[in-house]
Design goal:
221 residues; alpha/beta; 6-stranded parallel beta sheet; 9 helices
Length: 221
C-alpha cells in the first residue's frame, strides 16, 4: 500500500463548474450576436487554454485572472454587452462553495493514509471550499504555490518535495486524463483515473467510477 494519496479536487472530490459555464454561455447568447452555445464554448476554451499553457514561472497568473481575461475576450468576440466581472463572480462563487460528490466525505474518513490535495485552483478558493465541506486533508498544494499548472511537473514536484515522499510512494487520483493521469504519470507517480462518465479506458490505466472504488484497487485495499 502507498504512504499517501495525492488527489485532485474539482471534478474529483467536488463538482466542476459545468452548470455555471452553461448559464454564462446563455447570458452571452442573450446579450450578444450569436446563438450557438458550442461556438461560444469553443472560443472561450481555446482562449483559456492558450493563456493557461503559458502561465508558469515568471509569467504565472492565477486561475481567477485567466478566467476573467478569457471570458472578457469571449464577450468581446461575440459582441455581447454582458458584464465580465458579474459573470466571472458566478464562477468564483461556485469555486468557494461547490456541490460535493456524495461519496467524497466517506472516502476522506476511510482513507488509511494521509490525503494531500493537489489542485489547479487558487489557494484561497480551495481553502474556502474545504472549509465549506468540513474536509481536513493533511496538506494542500495549489498551482498558485508552484507557479505552474498541471499537467506540468512543478506542482507534483512541489507535493513530493514538501511531503518528503518519493513518486513510488504515492498515488494520485484525479478526473482529468491529461492533467492528472498523464501529468502525474510522467513523474512515475501511480495514478487512478476517476472516470465518472464511463469513457473508454486505455490499456494499463487504473480507472474507477467513484472515489470509494479506489479501495478495490491495488493501491488502497
Amino acid at each position: 500500500m502507498v504512504k499517501a494519496v495525492l488527489i485532485d479536487f474539482y471534478g474529483t472530490v467536488v463538482h466542476e463548474d459545468g452548470e455555471i459555464i452553461k448559464k454564462i454561455t446563455e447570458k452571452i447568447i442573450e446579450t450578444g450576436s450569436v446563438d450557438d452555445g458550442k461556438q461560444i464554448g469553443g472560443f472561450w476554451w481555446n482562449e483559456f487554454q492558450t493563456m493557461f499553457m503559458n502561465a508558469y514561472g515568471a509569467a504565472f497568473e492565477t486561475q481567477r485572472e485567466l478566467e476573467y481575461r478569457s471570458l472578457a475576450k469571449t464577450i468581446d468576440e461575440f459582441q455581447s454587452d454582458a458584464d465580465p466581472k458579474a459573470l466571472s463572480e458566478m464562477m468564483f462563487a461556485h469555486w468557494t462553495k461547490p456541490p460535493i460528490f456524495e461519496e467524497s466525505k466517506e472516502f476522506f474518513e476511510r482513507c488509511p493514509v494521509p490525503i494531500f490535495i493537489v489542485s489547479n485552483i487558487d489557494r484561497a478558493d480551495l481553502l474556502s471550499a474545504l472549509e465549506y465541506h468540513g474536509l481536513k486533508p493533511a496538506g494542500v498544494f495549489t498551482s498558485e504555490d508552484a507557479k505552474s499548472y498541471k499537467p506540468r511537473k512543478e506542482l507534483f514536484e512541489l507535493a513530493l518535495r514538501s511531503t518528503g515522499l518519493k513518486a513510488s510512494e504515492v498515488v494520485h487520483i484525479g478526473d482529468s486524463f491529461t492533467s492528472d493521469v498523464k501529468g502525474a504519470g510522467a513523474l512515475g507517480i501511480h495514478t487512478i483515473w476517476v472516470n465518472r462518465a464511463g469513457k473508454e479506458v486505455p490499456l494499463g490505466i487504473t480507472a474507477i467510477g467513484n472515489l470509494l472504488e479506489a479501495y478495490h484497487t491495488d493501491y488502497l485495499i
